[in-house]
Write a structure and sequence with these properties.
about 130 residues; alpha/beta; 3 helices
Length: about 130
């Protein structure tokens, strides 16, 4: 068993696609109209185009807002992305105007930072322990 697809709820799919591709560097994999303005919209890592897909899912369900608001209020990231160098990625993204809620922090063998994805979520970037 392996993870094929995971999702995050986003306020605006077009804005999310722009941020996740043009700012973070993911690439669009699927963009299928579903009606009512919604799309089956996924992105993948350019390093693993056949790997795990991230679904940028519309945040229309009534349970989404209180759930995400509680996570953001408590500073809890909704997802974590692996990077080779957290400090370098922090500097790159900060230079692009990304707002970080937690600057790079070392916690044992892991370095992590947390940013606002502009779509209603906090996202953590982290190095993976060797």
């Amino acid at each position: 068993m392996k993870i094929h697809l995971t999702s995050i709820f986003v306020d605006d799919q077009a804005k999310a696609l722009d941020f996740y591709t043009n700012t973070l560097g993911f690439v669009k994999k699927h963009d299928v109209p579903l009606g009512g303005g919604a799309r089956w919209l996924t992105v993948v890592s350019p390093d693993a185009p056949g790997g795990t897909e991230l679904l940028l899912e519309p945040a229309g369900h009534p349970a989404v807002k209180p759930y995400r608001d509680a996570l953001v209020s408590d500073g809890i990231p909704l997802a974590q992305f692996a990077v080779d160098d957290v400090q370098a990625e922090y500097e790159r993204l900060s230079g692009l105007g990304v707002r970080f809620t937690q600057e790079p922090l070392e916690a044992g063998p892991v370095t992590m930072a947390v940013f606002d994805d502009t779509c209603g979520n906090l996202i953590q970037i982290a190095t993976q322990p060797q």
